[in-house]
Amino acid sequence: MNKKLGGGILAVIVAIGIKIAIGLGLGSGIGFLSEKAKAPDVGDCVVVTGPSSSPEVKKKACGSETLWKVASDDGKCDELEVSYTVTVTGAKAVNLCLEEDAAVGECLQINPDDPNVLDKQVACTAAPAAGTFVVKVTKVDTTTADLKCGKRELPLPNKTRHTSMCIGRTSA
Fold first, then answer.
1. Which of 40, 79, 102, 142 has minimal Cβ neighbours within 10 Å of its Cβ?
2. Whole-angstrom distance, CA of residue 125 vs CA of residue 73
3. How many CB atoms lie within 10 A of CB 46?
4. Residue 91: what pLDDT?
5. Cβ–Cβ under 8 Å, residues 83 and 103
6. CA distances (Å), 138 to each of 111, 126, 172, in order?
7. pLDDT band at 149 (very low <50, low <70, confident <90, very high)
8. DSSP state letters, 31-92
9. Which strands sit side by side in the sheet containing 163-169, from one edge to the other?
10. Closest CA to 39 of 98, 97, 101, 96
11. Residue 45: strand pairing partners
């Protein structure tokens, strides 16, 4: 009879311990993990929409609709990457580093004077919006940040990820 009583008391003590841990906020890590599970994984492609003050990131299949790829989820972004933080009820959760997911021949509308305006893919014949210009991706290398570009091309080396691309002006 003492064995049953002892086992029941142990179960009660464990249950009380769990309730105390949750009450003290030790369970808040569970929210972090569940939100991280909802965040895009490294290598996933995403579309960023909404204003720069509160952008929304949605996971999509890589390709022409996406412009960004998750390069890292540790918050250690290269100067060419966009930093995005997924939050849970106001607390920082996951710091994503987004790099451009552009292929040779695709064109981007960029705003060199305002880092808060995200680049976007456009038709190579598109007229640039005010304060922007359209550039064409001429080379991409996923193995080195030391890609050699042509005379009228601008190199964009990502030294953190050891990748690079070259861009050039379009005739539009």
1. 79
2. 35
3. 22
4. 55
5. no
6. 19, 17, 16
7. very high
8. HHHHHHHHSPPTT-EEEEES-TTS-EEEEE-SSTT--EEEEESBS---TTSEEEEEEETTEE
9. 120-122, 107-110, 133-141, 163-169, 153-158
10. 96
11. 60, 69
The pTM for the full model equals 0.68
Rounded CA separation 113/35 (Å):
34
β-pairing, 68-72 vs 45-49, is antiparallel
The answer to whether the beta carbons of residues 93 and 35 sit under 8 Å apart is yes
Measured distance CA(103)–CA(116) in Å, rounded: 23
81, pLDDT greater than 50: yes
Contact 172, 127 (CB under 8 A): yes
Residue 68, token pair as written in the block: 């960004």
Quick one: how far is CA 80 from the chain centroid? Answer: 12
Confidence at 14, pLDDT banded by 50, 70, 90: very low
CA distances, 86 to each of 44, 97, 98, 156, 166 (Å): 15, 11, 12, 26, 30
Q: Please, which residues have CB within 8 angstroms of residue 164's CB and are 6 or more apart in sequence?
A: 140, 141, 144, 145, 146, 147, 155, 156, 157, 158
